[in-house]
């Protein structure tokens, strides 16, 4: 039997991975905003992060309150079209774009719940490469759908073939768990229209549906007699849809319909109130979920024409994604927040949210938009459909500076911008402890398990001090101590582990790097004797050198 192969996308620099510093977050109260009064069900613990989104994702990944707790991730990354966008550098070279996406997707996966899902909007320039990349990160078995969204309805007469759609790639942490937990979408007018109430039925509008099924089943071939005494049998090649006892129950409940004159074939009455919703399909037309022009008009009304984005996503589109993927109270994340549509919709629909945005429009666009949502001044989008009246709030954070900086002699030292509390929280992140300072024990700054704690200090500890701490910790607990220096003999204290700072984390990551956006203009020029290799997809298997090229593309999209 031939060995199985799997597709693997390769590109220049794929093996290069950033060594990210797990930064802490610092609140900037000037931009945080909360409603003046609290109401039942209001959500206030929403988060807007201003800073590089890869560093922000790393900060979230090392937060036990976020890692594995996000029910839905929606991202609208730069499409890599080569076009000039005011707010984005949307023209990264293919290999850089794929590396940028891979690094973020791997962290996003770690943030999702077991039944969580990722939704990515993308166009044809990179969409098909992104599909293969997502297969690698999430596994092909966890691919849910490639939804086609009709982003525009007018024809483009200047194009060879006008682009009328975007893709929405949907992946799950577990396909089976997502399928079991996902919600249906609301009924549309077309689905509702057949339901009438000609007989003033107290149970409301209804329609009759067929009472037959395909195939022959001997126990479902019984005769049915209508009100006029006429005998009915299933049509050839079909059977009744239920066993006879079930049919009689439906008949007694008045759920069998023989037509207005009583002479028709038996059909089952289904009430509109019994229809929970529709199974989502992979075709989302603009009249159901909106289009780019609709989103622009909403943005103009909310932020003014000068401040609005060129290609915002309509709130109706995000509303459907949030409805299908989450329930009220669930956590939604958008790490390419743009103008803040995801947070605005999630807030109106009673979901918790986290948004990350690097550009200045975190303050110039998202902050005023979310203030209007919270204050009940946003009348557009899905406000009316969600019955939104205002309320709740959010906190605005920025990334802390790098923990380490070089002194005048070129040595790495703790940054002058860090106070003791910030240092303790940062070391908790580095060693995977939840930052939770104790009011009872000065040496409890964080906790990783029921009996494992961490203590961070810039002091130099003597052996007598270490022994005193060891006595307080006791036999059934353990303590990691991070300090600048300590006397010998600590290894004799079984419940203590002592590490020097900054030496303990010196090689853990890249220090002082604040921007992972990979702008083309910041890259070094390629040497003249270097030859760029094409982007390829390989099928990896047990043959020859282990790979074979399936196709190569050395042209820009």
TrEMBL record:
<dbReference type="InterPro" id="IPR029063">
    <property type="entry name" value="SAM-dependent_MTases_sf"/>
</dbReference>
<dbReference type="Pfam" id="PF01555">
    <property type="entry name" value="N6_N4_Mtase"/>
</dbReference>
<keyword id="KW-0489">Methyltransferase</keyword>
<dbReference type="GO" id="GO:0009007">
    <property type="term" value="F:site-specific DNA-methyltransferase (adenine-specific) activity"/>
</dbReference>
<protein>
    <recommendedName>
        <fullName>site-specific DNA-methyltransferase (adenine-specific)</fullName>
        <ecNumber>2.1.1.72</ecNumber>
    </recommendedName>
</protein>
<dbReference type="InterPro" id="IPR002052">
    <property type="entry name" value="DNA_methylase_N6_adenine_CS"/>
</dbReference>
<dbReference type="InterPro" id="IPR002295">
    <property type="entry name" value="N4/N6-MTase_EcoPI_Mod-like"/>
</dbReference>
<keyword id="KW-0808">Transferase</keyword>
<dbReference type="GO" id="GO:0003677">
    <property type="term" value="F:DNA binding"/>
</dbReference>
<dbReference type="GO" id="GO:0032259">
    <property type="term" value="P:methylation"/>
</dbReference>
<keyword id="KW-0949">S-adenosyl-L-methionine</keyword>
<feature type="domain" description="DNA methylase N-4/N-6">
    <location>
        <begin position="70"/>
        <end position="364"/>
    </location>
</feature>
<dbReference type="GO" id="GO:0008170">
    <property type="term" value="F:N-methyltransferase activity"/>
</dbReference>
<comment type="similarity">
    <text>Belongs to the N(4)/N(6)-methyltransferase family.</text>
</comment>
<dbReference type="InterPro" id="IPR002941">
    <property type="entry name" value="DNA_methylase_N4/N6"/>
</dbReference>
